[in-house]
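Hi all, long-time lurker, first post. I run a small reading group and we've been trying to get comfortable going from sequence to structure in the token notation. Rather than ask abstract questions, I figured I'd post a concrete chain and ask someone more experienced to write out its structure so we can walk through it together at our next meeting. Sequence below, copied exactly:
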Amino acid sequence: MSAARRPEWLKVRLPSGPNFRELVGIMHTQALHTVCEEARCPNIGDCWERRTATFLILGNVCTRHCAYCAIAHGLPTELDVREPERVAEAASAMGLRHVVVTSVDRDDLADGGAAMFARTIRLLRERRPQCSVEVLIPDFKGDPAALRTVLDAAPDILNHNIETVPRLFRAVRRGGNYRRSLDLLARAKAGEGRWLTKSGMMVGLGETRDEVLETMRDLRSVGCDILTIGQYLSPGKDYAPIARYYDPEEFAEFKRDGLAMGFRHVESGPLVRSSYHADEQAVGAGAR
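-- Answer (accepted) --
Happy to help. Here is the structure in token form:
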């Protein structure tokens, strides 16, 4: 479908409900950022009403300027070392069973913020031991030591999004590298821990179906366990345009293709984002 008009299946209700309002209060009380808010996720009402949220650590200013992302970019001015404690406190107050922690890119830091991820994981284990922990990490510029720092804290799921197909990667994911992202997932899977690996893609940027399938095969070749596929929605006129809308049946086909390739779990749909129903994804893939 062309991108002239947003189809009905992409329309969502405005966020509301008691759980949503309570989570807003907890986040603001703890002075925390969420990717749900910063990236203008269309699922915020659904997920927050289900008492699930994705914490955004290392501040809310990214050192990269990807063509699809609404998060502010520039040079961060500080690092809040108390952030991991507040994330753990908020997760405990919310009574979460599955926590997702992600971050902006922090290329200004020697380890890319890996130590903050590790500390957040360990504090979550202390404060909420019954909770599974998923981290959605940047590529750390390919630094294996930074990845090892995160893995040593033993998350249940190590997520790094590939985002798009190789042909579009340079234009869409500025500062990233397709091969580097695959190598990160390969190294994570080669580790001795029992964590699952996960990645996500957007469609609607001008890729072909064959290119999507080839990227899915690349992810399986490095042992990726969980895959998410969703429709790209441009944050505004200064971002990459939407080339086309995929219909629900096309997403269902991608799910069937992914399961046939051997992914443990595939979440594929117009409104799917990396952390959409992440708790159910974790259960479906056998985390913990």
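A couple of things your group might point at:
The longest helix spans residues 114-127.
The domain at 8-285 is CATH 3.20.20 (TIM Barrel).
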